[in-house]
Amino acid sequence: MQFVDDMHETQGLTEKTMRIGAKGENLIFLISQPRSGSTLVQRILAVHPDIYTTSEPWLMLHPHYALRSDGYRAEYNEELARKAMEAFLQVIPKGEDEYIKGVRRMYSYLYESALAGSGKRYFLDKTPRYYLIIPELFRTFPKARYIILFRNPLAVLCSVLKTWVKEDWFSLSGAKNDLIRAPRLLLGGLGLLGKGVVVIHYEPLVENPGGEVKRICDLLGLDFVPEMIEYGRLNLPHWSLGDAEGIYQHAQPATENIQKWVKMLADPQVWRLANDYLELLGNEIVEEIGYPYQELRQLLEMHRPRRVSPRLTFPLAWLLNEPVKGPKRWMCGVSTLMMLLRTRGVRGTAVAVMRGVAYALSSPE
Hints:
This protein has 14 helices and 5 strands. It has helices at 2-20, 38-46, 61-65, 78-90, 95-116, 134-140, 153-165, 176-193, 202-207, 209-220, 268-288, 293-302, 316-319, 334-362, and strands at residues 27-32, 51-53, 122-126, 145-150, 197-201.
């Protein structure tokens, strides 16, 4: 009897899903670089009586990466799995289209399952790294609402350094995609999603939350609810993913967070990384995401530490395992070793030197 009851319950939920969410009509996707303020936007939207959300689902990355030949690793041998899937889909007419339909049905069901008990109309999936799969996501859910959030890229970098790196400079390579690929992929997403995408910039949202949140609601086709601004006064849950600290210290957007990153430039290593990052992105990308390149350049010069030595600071490209222009890092010699000894100790220095030598020998000039 329990099995029959489960079947009836599943059938009812599936029919409901196919009726209201077949192509994502009840979904909102919030996509950005990590450390861009997406948790702030999520908590503001979570106050709306029609929106339900929870932490960061990360649901859609797995099924779409299954169609890719790289970008992930699995103990079951991802290369063979990809070939096997290709062979399987070849025996199905319009095989890849049918796969997308299958993904749509399965994940519509999961989203609806999460939404069912909330009494709300829309499910908000805030997963910043969906920037990696915007075309696939749009193909799966063309009727969903999409929000793309941008933030001053130098502020994003400094937030990554403060929150994740914490002076373990070699761990910065883990954020390579977030820093280098994300801005370009988000811009590509804007072109693909067209007029249906809602674009948010962190700074105007924090400076004028009332006007910006109303604008967002209007673009989403929702009524503006003033209580959304003071999101911290409601009993929202403490989510396991996203901003784990700053967001819970304020009841509403805090303007001091806009320029907080500038103080970090007093550290020569942070300044070097910020300067490198601005150059690595380039004028065109920075301007296209909505920030004045020359003003950021001037701001960096205004806050340049007195001593920023190439021999005492690591270049961003090297830490991200990107090709480095000019002499390789191993030529920095004794001064770099001294800095490593001071900041990482003997054991950490040995590891760093081995990594550096291996990279220098394997990288082109």
